[in-house]
Amino acid sequence: MSGEVLYDGWCGEPIAWARIGDPVIGREWTEHGSVAVTGRLSPAEALRKYGPITELVVGRNGGFQSVTYGVTKFVSRFVDPRGTGLYDNTVVVVHDPARDNYECPVCQAAPGEQCANKKNQPCGTHSKRSQGRSRWEIEQADAAARKAREDAEAADQWQREMATPPSLGSVLEIKRWMPADDTASEGTDRYTVERTYSNRTVEATADSGERVFLARNEYTGGWHVICGQPTSARLPCRGGGPGVPCRVRHKPGLRLREDSPWTPR
Predict the structure, then answer these.
(1) Is residue 82 within 8 Å of residue 119, measured between CB atoms?
(2) Which residues contact 131 (CB under 8 A, 6 or more apart)?
(3) What is the CA radius of gyration of the chain?
(4) In the chain, what is the straight-line distance between the N-terminal and C-terminal CA atoms, in Å?
(5) What's the 3-state SS for 99-142?
(6) Residues of the chain scoring pLDDT < 50
């Protein structure tokens, strides 16, 4: 085709022509002003040239918005196929910004879903739909709920790990710390678990053969050396540590009984 004078605002395809020698059928506004045209692209011609109608978009009140022939989308009303019988209703899409982006406060329809009446039958969009939660607000609320759930699950898992005593004979590793600048040194001390006690402490033997008592930091999960002197016949003292004297006054002559399971807190 030659003499194109008007193009579709979306795809840029020609939709009106002015051919020399053909009768004028009307006038159209272009970037050069009002021009006479001798032909306009019709739905039937668009169907033959670009392919079958794959999508027809209308507004919530039925107004034409766009039509796609094959893979070519037009927004010009010249190719509006309604009333031509060139398509079936399966290709019709209702573009409703309120329905697409808001949850209905009346029937609780999610964004993108059609409203329903009191009998749970599809109906037109409720007038208060735009007053509901937006899609962004729903996504943020879902993300916050998901994070809270994940945090709660992680906290429960952490509590279970903290409440599970190490098995007898397992090896615990503790990094050496420099008291001067509170930084870790290169070395690592290894301790073999010999007994566990109900206040969540363990008796262990170092590689050097030294007998020590260890407790676990419930925030970091790391182990550290404690005082370990008996506070009763069944509990070692959790105070003190490397370079930190224990301030608890212990009774002389106390001896620890056999190990006992850790108790829940």
Answers:
(1) no
(2) 102, 105
(3) 39
(4) 84
(5) HHHECCCCCCCCCCCCCECCCCCECCCCCCHHHCCEHHHHHHHH
(6) 1, 183-184
Nearest to 249 by CA among 223, 227, 224: 227
Q: In this structure, what token pair is assigned to residue 84?
A: 């031509």
C-alpha 222/C-alpha 215 separation (Å) is 9
Query: How many Å apart are CA 33 and CA 28, to the nearest integer?
Result: 8
Asked if residues 108 and 118 have their Cβ atoms less than 8 Å apart, the reply is no
pLDDT at 163: 78
Gap between the Cα atoms of 125 and 123, Å rounded: 7
Write out pLDDT tens, residues 60-86.
788 999 999 999 999 999 999 999 999
Rounded to the nearest 10°, the torsion over CA 92, 96, 97, 102 is: -110
At 92, which helix (H) or strand (E)?
strand 92-95
β-bridge partners, 122: 116
Rounded Cα–Cα distance for residues 246 and 81 (Å): 89
SS3 78: helix
- For 148-166, give the DSSP string: HHHHHHHHHHHHHHHHSPP
Beta bridge partners of 189: 174
Report residue 260 as tokens.
């006992």
Half-sphere exposure of 29 (CA within 13 A, CB side): 1
